[in-house]
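Notes from hallway chat w/ T.B., transcribed later so I don't forget. T.B. wanted the structure written out for a chain they're using in a teaching module, and asked if we could keep both sequence and structure tokens in one place. Agreed to drop them here.
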Amino acid sequence: MIIDTGQVDVRGCRSLVQLKSGIPSQVVAAIDINTTANQIYRHNFPDTCLWNKTIEGITLDDFNKLSFDMILMSPPCQPFTRIGLKGDISDPRTKSFLYILDLLPRLSKLPRFILLENVKGFETSSARERLVKTLMGCGYTFQEIMVSPTSVGIPNSRLRYFLIAKISTENSSTLTSFKILDAIPHPAESDSAELPTALGPPHPGTCQPEEEIPGGHVLYKLETTMDAQRKINQNHDLSVRQIQDFLEPQMEVILEHYLLPPKTLLRYALLLDIVRPTCRRSVCFTKGYGRYVEGTGSVLQCSMETEMENVFRGLDQCCEEEKLQRLLKLKLRYFTPREVANLMGFPQSFSFPEQITTKQQYRVLGNSLNVVVVTKLLQLLIS
């Protein structure tokens, strides 16, 4: 059995990891208090027992009765994000994580394996120190890893901290079968919006439109030379697949539903991260995708005959109407929820219930994990 303790996300992500990893296992319970997440989980895993409660509401005796073999943890990330208050263990949202750490040494049978995921920033936190101290006290060996989906050939940047641990005396060759508990500790506020930071005046090193960089490329947006060169390098990395491999068939996408509206184009054109189907990169999708622009995810250029350089060159000198006409030529749209799910490694068998809105789908996907990355780590953990 695996006990899964994570924040609000697309429930079933870790169950999908279990399925893709090929590890023989059984999900004995899923635990969450988020209504949307539970609807999605129940839709994809109708035969799994689903508990609507917090982790803190589960007693030590309850955990002992489950007799689980593995814990998969994804504690609320807000106390550790770079744009948050970095409250660390003083943040109430770490309560469920600290509760697990308190219970772990007192369990009648220690789980054989542990996998934890969180954002970059967790590795320098007091929560991480407390985790490591608890693991060492219980006799675990562990490895810490910072990894992004690009490492497994997926064109999406989502750098995350992972820790994998197992009991020091564990002989992985004795692995037979697991039971899984899919559980999520989080407070009611855990899905509060993570707003993108406001863009101030260009700082030193920020390039203005039309500045040329080596190779003949033109910087047409508010980005640094380093940013532009990094994108060029990413698009030339043949170990990463192209965006087009993760797109829905064109006839299945109702383009009008996902095109960026004129007001968004005019206001945020210089902040957009624009990718083409042939690109081998995209930025991290967050739960604010589709509602906020800066730092929430890439947008897709659908008009291949239009060159972005021609659209953005001298754009700041144009009147508003001409700006809009230029930008509309690119046919910029949001990635659909299915496409985001594809970039997150979710299999085609995964789906959303009809009653879940597009906004809700983006929200839960933005809080989720990359299935392929965790699958690889889970296989590494037990091998």
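Follow-up for T.B.: The CA atoms of residues 269 and 327 lie 8 Å apart. Might be a good example for the class.
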